[in-house]
Amino acid sequence: MPHDHHDHEHDHAHGHAHAHAPPQPDHKVHSYYQILGVALKELLVEKGVVTADEVRAAIEKRDQITPAHGAKVVARSWVDPLYRIKLLTNANLAVAELGFPMTTTKLVAVENSEEVHNVVVCTLCSCYPRELLGLPPAWYKSRAYRARIVSEPRAVLGEFGTNLPDNVEVRVHDSTADIRYLVIPIQPPGTEGKSEEELAALVTRDSMIGVAEVKAHG
Amino acid sequence: MRGPHDVGGLPEGPIETETHDLSFWEKQIDGIRAVIGAKGIVTTHENRRYVEGLGDDAYETLTYYERWTAALARQMIEKNILTQDELDARVREIRARLAATGELAPELSGEHA
Fold it and tell me: Does residue B54 belong to the interface with chain A, where contact is any CB pair within 8 Å?
């Protein structure tokens, strides 16, 4: 059996409260899995399965993707009605047009309105439109968010400071390995004269997951 | 039957929204997965299935990237890319290396040495 169940010192009481290890101030290795990870890396490199350069390049590529990509897509959809239609009907095509191809998954864009508020989760794991938003925040991967957003979305949104009127319908979209979602938030009132770049600067990661709305002043 | 990963709708406590940057080893696991995924060695479905297959205890107690690491190890062994013995030997070696430079935390110096 692979060593999946090492009974090392682990805080069971908080085991699923954090989605990844908090930084350790002493720079020592505290997790058996960190050692296992290094062992995997070394062996896969030695066997020629991956090269160190490939792994480094992959990390750099990930680090360069920020929610600014998604924000650019959203801002374009606010200023260009034809682009918005394209985004809502063939999102993969629309985001590739702005330089953010998503080749391995289907992207679905969902728009918020006065009547409907959309929010995204991956109840089974952590699927997320990484090409547009980067790596998911820890809370998105947390058991609490995944469990509760589908059964009590209004309460969860409230915890994020998003209090919706009762007449607004809340739609929760559960991502899969094959389908990812991008929320197009409502353009805040009073920002009609702003440029596309100025608008993009207002669009936050949380608004594109759907747990927040976009504010007129950042 | 509901697996440990299948948490949608279950009662849970407040959501902790505090975030912190990934550590280098976590990024490295992510990078390895990205590369072997791009090469067609593993698929996203497969990755997810291996994480789900870790069992209730591991799923509950390990952190996110610890789960991915455990799943990746099992995946590489079952695909005959690595053997358990190779992996165990390398873990012992790295543990010894870290111990020699004083980088091994006390809680890891005992039973697995």
Answer: yes
DSSP A164-197: --TTSEEEEEE--SSEEEEEEPPPPTT-TTS-HH
Does residue B81 carry a pLDDT above 90?
A: yes
Give A69-115 pLDDT, tens digit per residue: 999 999 999 999 999 999 999 999 999 999 999 988 999 999 999 99
Among all chains, which residue has been given the structure tokens 């669009």?
Answer: A203
Cα(B107)–Cα(B31) distance, rounded to whole angstroms? 27
The string of pLDDT tens digits covering residues A163-197 is 999 999 999 999 998 999 999 999 999 999 999 99
- Give which of B5, B6, B17 to mutate to test A binding, by max A Cβ within 10 Å: B17
* Closest-CA residue to A18 (of A187, A141, A111): A141
Which positions in chain B touch A126 (Cβ < 8 Å)?
A: 64
Asked if CATH classification 3.90.330.10 holds for the domain at A66-209, the reply, yes or no, is: yes
Task: Test B12 with A147 for CB contact under 8 angstroms.
Answer: yes
Predicted ipTM of the assembly = 0.89
Domains and CATH numbers, chain B: 24-108 (1.10.472.20)
